[in-house]
Design brief:
Strand order of the largest sheet: 3-2-1-4-5-6-7
Number of strands: 7
Helix content: 40-55%
GO molecular function, one term: enoyl-[acyl-carrier-protein] reductase (NADH) activity
CATH architecture: 3-Layer(aba) Sandwich
Bound molecules: 1,4-dihydronicotinamide adenine dinucleotide
Order of helices and strands: EHEHEHEHHEHEHHHEH
Keywords: Fatty acid biosynthesis, Fatty acid metabolism, Lipid biosynthesis, Lipid metabolism, NAD, Oxidoreductase
Structural class: alpha/beta
CATH topology: Rossmann fold
Pfam family, one: adh_short_C2
CATH superfamily: NAD(P)-binding Rossmann-like Domain
Radius of gyration: 18 Å
Distance between the termini: 42 Å
Family: Belongs to the short-chain dehydrogenases/reductases (SDR) family. FabI subfamily.
CATH class: Alpha Beta
Number of domains: 1
Strand content: 5-15%
Shape: globular
InterPro entries: Enoyl-ACP_Rdtase_NADH, NAD(P)-bd_dom_sf, SDR_fam
């Protein structure tokens, strides 16, 4: 159901790789809610061309940008404002990648070049996006900037490896830049800490199916789906959440507040 929550708003959505991506669902919901936006992803990720289907469905243009490249981001923000005919109201950073995870390195045998790449792609890019937006004065007042995080920023999950440090840094950047952007332009900056979700990035983490099921059994409401996450993102882009900023917002069906659940006890007693 649509509520016109984003009528007249202009945005940039990073990270729609395929129809499993959280960013894909956010784009579909943002379109339903009346937003206009551009879609962007790393040039390499566009080889499959899937993003063009989404662009057509949403009447959006696609601008390639590697989120680690300040030059690409400058071009993206300039072009997005030209295409959309004004400043930006919302930005979704839905980007994560660890070469160490992808190549199956254990936490005791990390490649440090790759570790830096993990941090650059998955965390520092969030700062780069905001610094470019600030320097171009690209954000409208009361705009909203959002990135996606995971509870491994606070608790250890062995297979999440160096992505845990990337998420801790991402959440820290949201706080620091949130303070700055709030003062400068009344722009809010938050992260959503999302349940395990069956996407390309999610299922790339070792043991994903086990911790997906574990989290589902621990959470009184069950795991939050990508569609649920998209709904939450829409509320944070809307004018209904204008004073929410510098927060890491848990969107996890209750997982983070549970010690143990009956479902897990039953399973362990078998
Ligand atoms: P996904 O694989 O569909 O999306 C990840 C995106 O990052 C892809 O579109 C990829 O092309 C993009 N990307 C990678 N390197 C890039 C670069 N250099 N420049 C620009 N884009 C780049 O997976 P998903 O799950 O939708 O991931 C979105 C976000 O949600 C990520 O931050 C992820 O860590 C986060 N998240 C995912 C969870 C899950 O279980 N799937 C749980 C909690 C958070």
């Amino acid at each position: 159901m649509a509520y016109n929550l984003l009528q007249g708003k202009k945005g940039i959505i990073f990270g729609a790789l395929n129809d499993k991506s959280i960013a894909w669902k956010v784009a579909q919901r943002a379109h339903e809610e009346g937003a206009q936006f551009v879609l962007t992803n790393a040039p390499l990720a566009m080889r499959m061309g899937e993003i063009n289907k989404l662009a057509e469905e949403c009447g959006a243009q696609v601008i390639p940008a590697d989120a680690t490249s300040v030059e690409d981001l400058q071009n993206l923000f300039t072009q997005a404002q030209e295409i959309l005919g004004g400043k930006i109201d919302f930005v979704l950073h839905s980007i994560g990648m660890s070469p160490n995870v992808r190549k199956g390195k254990t936490y005791g045998d990390l490649n440090y070049e790759w570790f830096l790449k993990t941090l650059d792609i998955s965390a520092l890019s969030f700062h780069k996006v905001m610094q470019v937006a600030e320097k171009q004065d690209a954000m409208n007042e009361w705009g909203s900037i959002l990135a996606l995080s995971y509870i491994a920023a606070q608790r250890s999950f062995p297979d999440y490896s160096d992505m845990a440090q990337a998420k801790a840094m991402l959440e820290s950047i949201a706080r620091s830049y949130g303070q700055r952007f709030g003062k400068l332009k009344k722009v809010r900056v938050n992260t959503i800490s999302q349940s395990p979700t069956k996407t390309t990035a999610g299922t790339g983490v070792g043991g994903f199916d086990a911790f997906f099921d574990y989290a589902d059994k621990m959470s009184p409401l069950g795991n939050a789906s990508a569609e649920d996450c998209a709904n939450y993102c829409i509320t944070l882009f809307s004018d209904l959440t204008r004073l929410v900023t510098m927060q890491n917002l848990l969107h996890d069906g209750g997982f983070s507040s549970v010690g143990i659940s009956e479902d897990i006890v039953t399973q362990m007693s078998k």
